[in-house]
Amino acid sequence: MNNIRKFRPGEAASSKWSEERDEFERDYARLIQSPTFRRLQGKSQVFGAGSGDYYRTRLTHSLEVAQIAREVAKRLERTNPFLSKREHPGLIIDPTVVECASIAHDFGHPPFGHKGEEVLNHILMKDHGLKYEGNAQNFRILMFLEKRAGSESGLDLTAAVLLGINKYPFLIEEEGRLKGVYGAEWDVIQELRDIWKMPVGCSTLEAQLMDLCDDIAYSTHDIEDGIRAGKIQMNATFFEDQRLIRHLVMEILNDPNQHKFGWEQVDIEQMVRRVLHDYLEQWELIFAECNREESRTRREMKARWVSSFASKLDIIDDTDRGWKKVALVKDGAEDMDLLRTMEILKKLAWVTLIKDFRVLRLQKRSEIIVERLWDSFIHKDKGQWIIPTDWIDSYERRSSNSNWSWPRFVADYISGMTDAYAEKVYAELFASKSGSIYEMD
């Protein structure tokens, strides 16, 4: 069992195994020492990276997801005896694997958050029939673009960590598929899934746990940032605003994944009102407990919601798929009310932060930056002279590989940029004056 979980599909058989470190600890080291991990500090979570020292970036978000996931994994190991039987490689929860998956889950996000992802996908699809998607880009980075000593490409991670990151176990090029894995990397992932005998469409318990902990962080930490920024105002006028409620309901109805939450079982508007009312009421109680200190209240509120969600995570039978499921659980069954509550809080963060008109103005600026960078690089005969030489050298060494056409190469280059670096390159190309030519890229 350990052999197929610790197998490294990209690593030469002659590579030395460490006798001092567990293989998953080696994966952790490779991830946090990678340039991609460091660049997460300069990529937007909700507010643009550089908006202020307080707000979260992709880096701090990933570390917080990893912390939640590792603690829950330890608890599930203690409280679910079947895990110790290790009956199936996908029905195991190793805290280090879950932590690695959490650290790497946002590696593929481009600069400027979801707007950057949206723009790159639109351009690639319109002009070249190629898709761009953050989760798929994760695997392109981990298995092809990243470099490490002794490897031709990628970080050569273990099978358990690769499948722990794979929350969408599908080929993204399939018709109608919005999320998944690009073809070249999918061939390897599919082979691992076949070796593991994974049911079609099912993720490992470790991937499911990482995904839910990402949702927990999103629905609690991003709201904390929103309160700090004044985008979410903790008073009845804000929480009872009919426009806010209408927007939340519309976000729920328009979500392509709405079927997962059983919204047909409830009056959506009534539940939205109830959750918002209860959230504000809890805030007022904690505000009094914290001697009316808003900063303490924010942190305590966030901590209690993280605890309320994380403490309810457990493993139940997924009878529809003949598999196991990590879920918010109450009385031995999935707690759909709590799941819907978490989704409403996620939508609250989305509507008040991402859909804020000032944020949308910044996103429009981001869209212009990405589009004009693309236009500058996409014609190879001109673009190759204004892209760093190490990138061009890598492309030329592997240009015969169908996995790296020039459009995909340009998408890789732009998507690897931090927000600030994208703005710097844009300024060098289009502003009247910007810095010095002796600055190191």
Automatic annotation (TrEMBL):
Top-level taxonomic group: Bacteria
Name listed for the protein in its UniProt record: DGTPase
GO MF annotation, one: dGTPase activity
Class of this enzyme: hydrolase
Residue span(s) of domain HD: 58-219
Upper lineage: Bacteria, Bacillati, Bacillota, Bacilli, Bacillales
Keywords, alphabetical: Hydrolase
Enzyme Commission numbers on file: 3.1.5.1
UniProt-listed SMART domains: HDc
